[in-house]
Specification:
Number of domains: 2
Helix content: 40-55%
Number of helices: 18
Low-confidence stretches: none
CATH architecture of the largest domain: 3-Layer(aba) Sandwich
Shape: globular
CATH topology of the largest domain: Rossmann fold
Strand order of the largest sheet: 3-2-1-4-5-6-7
Number of strands: 13
CATH superfamily of the largest domain: Glycogen Phosphorylase B
Strand content: 15-25%
Structural class: alpha/beta
Length: about 375
């Protein structure tokens, strides 16, 4: 019987990373059976998908409470799949609130467990490292400081580098992309990246559109605004918000690195997208808003000064952050216009992104992750 690996990715970014991992696993071992929970990316990579949880991904305590019944159903379904499939190895990808609970069930069944992309224990609730030490056979981390942290606590760990180094690539140069979008060189292009979760779109996109309306009055008349839509989210989420705005941005209905690279400046929701923008060397402003309950609780729990991943990796605030009540159109527009006006300020930010790229390791992260998974399987 061929070896069987069960993979679980609960949101779109994890689905993408798991898909690249799956391709590398099958390249090394075509006989493997890969089955699990994930999205279209994992399915296209050769994973047999039992259920797709990526459309329901939420963040924040209040948001999770509202979707608690759905998470319970999904958890029961995942546990039932473990009992039915009896895999030789389980790989859990990111999504810590759910996956650490699922890890307990994996441990009870005496199945070897690899965790790919660490929970952010360096940001909040460091006590989770004791749980991880008890449950996880091998932690695969994407930031070098995570490796040192886990080694100090006796957790088997491998630093594989960040998979974005392999994934963030442009297919065309900037001029070709601008022409494809019906734009021209010299026209200021402002990117709007409002996130990949429904709650983020509803909370943050109206603020970004309002900030861009203010910017439009001060920018040259040739300025254009480019909204990059999360492909897995319905237009029904975006359309009412766009209808209330006077901006009328051009919309790309896919996550498009060419499109991001064509922008002179981006307004981006905090998350993995900040690293993607940094790797493309796009000057950025980081914005984040959540429910007030989640925000107040996070203020008590979070142990770091910055929330943008690009700033955390850099070890300093290379890109300005606008969080919660500071995430208002007036402040965002003022800072964005200043960044646009002073070319040297933009160039200094782009130079800082080089250190971020270096800190993420080298290309080949998915291949190294696959090698570590196969080592655990053996």
């Amino acid at each position: 019987m061929p070896a069987k690996i069960f993979l679980f990715a609960g949101e779109s970014s994890g689905d993408l990373h798991a898909a690249h991992l799956a391709r590398e696993l099958l390249r090394s071992r075509p006989d493997l059976q890969l089955v699990g929970f994930g999205g279209s990316q994992m399915r296209s990579a050769g994973v047999k998908i039992l259920e797709d949880p990526t459309g329901a991904a939420v963040i924040g305590i209040a948001e999770v409470l509202r979707h608690l019944a759905e998470f319970r159903r999904l958890f029961r379904r995942a546990v039932a799949a473990l009992d039915e499939l009896k895999p030789d190895l389980v790989v859990l990808v990111d999504y810590p609130g759910f996956n650490l609970a699922l890890a307990r069930e994996v441990k009870r069944r005496k199945i070897r467990l690899v965790y790919y992309i660490s929970p952010q224990i360096w940001a909040w609730d460091p006590g989770r490292i004791r749980t991880i030490r008890r449950l996880v056979d091998r932690m695969l981390v994407v930031f070098p400081f995570e490796k040192k942290l886990y080694e100090r606590h006796g957790v088997p760990v491998t630093f594989v580098g960040h998979p974005l180094l392999d994934q963030v690539k442009t297919a065309h140069d900037r001029l070709q992309t601008l022409q494809k979008l019906g734009l021209h060189d010299g026209m200021p292009v402002i990117g709007i990246l409002p996130g990949s979760r429904e709650g983020e779109i509803r909370r943050i996109l109206p603020t970004l559109l309002a900030a861009c309306e203010r910017m439009k009055e001060a920018l040259p008349s040739t300025a254009r605004f480019l909204l990059i839509k999360a492909p897995h989210l319905s237009w029904k989420i975006y359309q009412p918000i766009l209808n209330r705005s006077t901006l009328n941005p051009k919309v790309l209905e896919r996550w498009d690195y060419d499109g991001i690279y064509a922008c002179d400046l981006v307004l981006v929701t905090s998350g993995t997208a900040t690293l993607e923008c940094a790797l493309l060397e796009r000057p950025m402003l980081i914005v984040y808003k959540t429910s007030w309950l989640t925000y107040l609780l996070s203020r008590l729990l979070i142990r770091i000064r910055m929330i943008g991943l690009v700033n955390i990796v850099a070890g300093e605030k290379v890109a300005p952050e606008f969080i919660q009540h500071h995430a208002n159109p007036r402040e965002i527009a003022r800072e964005a216009l200043e960044l646009w006006t002073f070319v040297q300020k933009r160039r200094a930010m782009q130079e800082s992104f080089q250190s971020v790229k270096t800190a993420l390791g080298s290309a080949g992260a998915s291949q190294r992750a696959a090698e570590a998974v196969l080592q655990e399987l053996r």
